Each structure stands twice: as C-alpha cells, then as structure tokens.
Amino acid sequence: MTTYQEHLASLQEIRSLMQRSSRFTALSGLSGIVVGLLALAGVRLIQWFLNQRHTSYQDIYQKPLTQETGTFLATVILVVLVLALSSVLVLTWLKAQKARQSIWHHQGQRWFTTLCLPLAVGGVFCLVLLYHHLLFLLAPSMLIFYGLALIHSSKYTFSDIRYLGMGEIALGLLACFQIEYGLLAWAAGFGGLNILYGILLHYKYERNTSSL
C-alpha cells in the first residue's frame, strides 16, 4: 500500500510539473471575485453620481456630456482599473509564493503579453471613441476587447478563461444593439461574470491543489 501511494504521489508531482511548464497556473480565482466586486462598486458609484444630478445612463448618450460628468466617469473607471490590476497581481503573487512558483517564468510572460496586447489596442480604441464623442459605445467596446484578451491568453493558462471571454464578447455585442443597457451589461460582464468565474476557478483548481 505504501509503494502504491508513493507511485501515486510521484505521478501527481510529474503531472503538476508538466502542467506548470505548459501553462500559467498561478492565476488566482479569488482575484476574479475581487475584480468583479470592484466593478460592481464602480457601477454603483456611477449610478449614485448620476442620481445626485437627476440624470441617468441613457442621458449620457442622448445629451452632450458635461465636463464634470466626464471627469467623474473617467476617474471611476481609472481607479477601478488600477485597483483591479493591482489585486490580480498581488493575489497571483501570493498564490505563486504559496506554491513556490515564479509568476514571471516563460509561460507567465507569454500569458501577460497575450493578455495585454488586446487590452492595449482596446484602450486606444476607447480613446478614439472619446475623441469622437461616441460615448455610448465605450461600455460595449470595453467588454468586447476584454473578452478578446481573455480568449487570446487562455492557451497559456486555464482553458476555462476562454468561456469567460466568450461571455464578455456576447454581452458587449448585445450592448452594441441595446445601448441603453450599456452600464447594466458592463456590470454583468466585469462584475457578475468575473465573480462567477472566480468561484468556479477556486473550486475547480484551488480547493484541491492536487488537481493541478
């Protein structure tokens, strides 16, 4: 029985080493939950701001945007983005430290590069939309480019991320046709889907570390 357990432990260790060498497994499911909660908090803050001025999200794309509203929206989005990225990096680093891994090995670099390239292009595209005052397309565009980034980077980490990306793109495309629901789609995509993904990732890969 002892010999069998030793062989089983050896096979599990070999499997873990092979998977670590072929994909980035330090990504934390908890980070998805934190990102989702931050996104929902940002949406709630935007709704509070608009309610204080007796306006709504629909008014943003139907009427000229005031400088005060534009500055507030840009600030909230920027703060949420910075906090989200920081939480992902910190929680991923903590998970890697616990597993005695490096987050900047070959596969980690590939994952980061393939994730950031579509996000960078999407960021520039959103600036173009701002320049041409096409604000009603900002929320859908963010969702679409975020989904593309997830799908593009999924081959270097957990394959489940691909399905999260597909969900983000689907919501973004729907919001392109129903622009009055852009903020709701933004909350569902960056908030709800990220939280759901984080929970699934945690229970599938992190609850039982031997499954990696």
Backbone shape? elongated
- Mean of residue pLDDT? 80
What is the N-to-C succession of helices and strands? HHHHHHHH
Poorly predicted sequence stretches spanning 5 or more consecutive residues: 17-21
Largest sheet descriptor: none
Rg result: 20 Å
Counted by DSSP, the helix tally is 8
Termini separation: 24 Å
Strand content: under 5%
* Helix proportion range: over 70%
Count the E strands: 0
**Structure classification:** mainly alpha
Write the layout of secondary structure elements.
Layout: H1 2-22, H2 29-52, H3 57-62, H4 67-98, H5 106-131, H6 138-153, H7 161-177, H8 182-206
What does this structure look like?
The protein has 212 residues and is mainly alpha-helical. The chain is built from eight helices and no strands. The longest helix is centred in the middle third of the chain and has 32 residues. It is elongated and about 75 Å long. The chain starts with a helix and ends in a 6-residue tail after the last helix.
Question: In a few lines, what is going on in this structure?
Answer:
The protein has 212 residues and is mostly helical. The protein has eight helices and no strands.
List keywords for this structure.
mainly alpha; 212 residues; 8 helices; 79% helix; elongated
